[in-house]
What does this fold into?
Amino acid sequence: MNSTTTGRMSALLLRYFFLLRSSWPRVLEIAYWPTVQMIIWGFTSIHFSTASPELTAGGILISAVLVWDSLFRSHISYTLSFLEEMWSRNLANLFVSPLRPWELLLSLAVVSMIRTLIGMIPAALLAIPFFGVSVFDLGLPLLGFFLNLVFTGWAISQAVTGILLRYGLGAESLTWMLPFLLAPFSCIYYPLDTLPDWMQVIAQYLSTTYVFEGMRALILHGEWLPDLLWRAFLLNGVYFIFGVSVFCIAFRAARNRGLLLQSGE
Amino acid sequence: MESESILKVNDLTKYFQRNLAVDDLTFSMQESSIVGLLGGNGAGKTTTLSMLLGLLRPTSGSVELFGHDFIKNRHAVLQRMNFCSPYVDLPQRLTVRENLRVFSKLYGVKDGTGRLSELADNFRLTEFMDQPVRRLSSGQKTRVSLAKALINQPEFLLLDEPTASLSPDVSQWIRKRLLDYRDRTGASILFASHDMREVELLCDQVLIMSRGSLIEEGTPEKLRQCYGKDSLEEVFLYLNQHGGGK
It folds into this structure.
């Protein structure tokens, strides 16, 4: 008997699949929020299209909502799966098994990707008949935008799961707060120069800013600016190192303080 | 012929900030033995078990398990051990079968389906294999946790008060399962408990801890004789009042 990385990761994927299967409202919820967001912003877009057509040109609002939601969904899916282990007091069972911490992180990322796609694809497809907007018209750059935001979501999640390990469920609200802290700086619905100078300085260190600047250039001016995307990937590399470091430090602290056995409600 | 030591604990110490939780603990365990770790609340039993599981890093000392340095390289041996505690739950929303399937994959059990039906028979789980764990009684949950703990046929099993809050008949049934398992596989079991009678019935060797230190060790019979008492409980109470013999 010898468990391998793929075997252990497939065990965790199976665990999250069983969890989803046990509750149909959870499955529905994955696609529910992105679709509701898309519908609300779709009608807002229609309303603005007569008064300020430049605001809604090329379906920019709906596209921005959908693309931004991929960050939020990837982060929430990742962190909620980890929280499930804390809520069910299962972390000790996992960490006394041959599972390596990095295998847990990788499994959470895979689950997050699957859940994000399940959530985003129906909303993106429904936007076509409802509002005549197809994010898929962005072509290959859409994949770059999407992956960048998913990576940012995971980097936030790695740091948040580390904080949850160290400080317990009292830090749970960070899960919901952190992505929204980035939102005003990320220039989702407005160009970078709309922000006051001090906010622009912060925005320049966010991968999300480059994603939305790049997307606006492509939708509004038909201009594809790959260097913005590469900058976003580079920043995500830095965030990834930061996120994993926070998790590793927190994991070490949790082992020093005996928090792995106590985690839970 | 004397059996080999599978576990060697040397000078194991744990401080939580300035509080000393385990003080210079040294003991060893032989292959195929059942060792009881006894102590009152706050004696350091759970802290010791956590260090032996790799969930808690010791402040100092060493743990050698199956010849490996467990503190530096615990992943080399985690495959060969398992544990069960009433204080650690299995995912409540998953059914018993789903839980056991997940853990059989996690431990790389070759014939997972076969092992599951074997455990279902041994632990009388068949009738509620497809029930979510949250709907089970505490006795049933304990049986499921023990089935999980034996899923990989561990050579070293750590149990933290596995019969806490169970009725005497269920406790007796579980003790019998554990003895059967040891006799059949030659596994070693470290068993932390408050229940002196249970330890007396089950264990070949007893370690008594108080305030983080090992204050006495020996076979239940030897300890009773040594202190001139009729039961291990009386020995324990005596040691608690008069201090350790080591």
Remarks:
- Chain A has one domain: 5-262.
- The mean pLDDT of chain A is 92.
- The longest helix of chain A spans residues 226-257.
- Chain A touches chain B at residues 1-4, 7-8, 10-12, 14-15, 18-19, 22-23, 84, 88-90, 92-100, 252, 255-258, 260-261, 264 (CB under 8 Å).
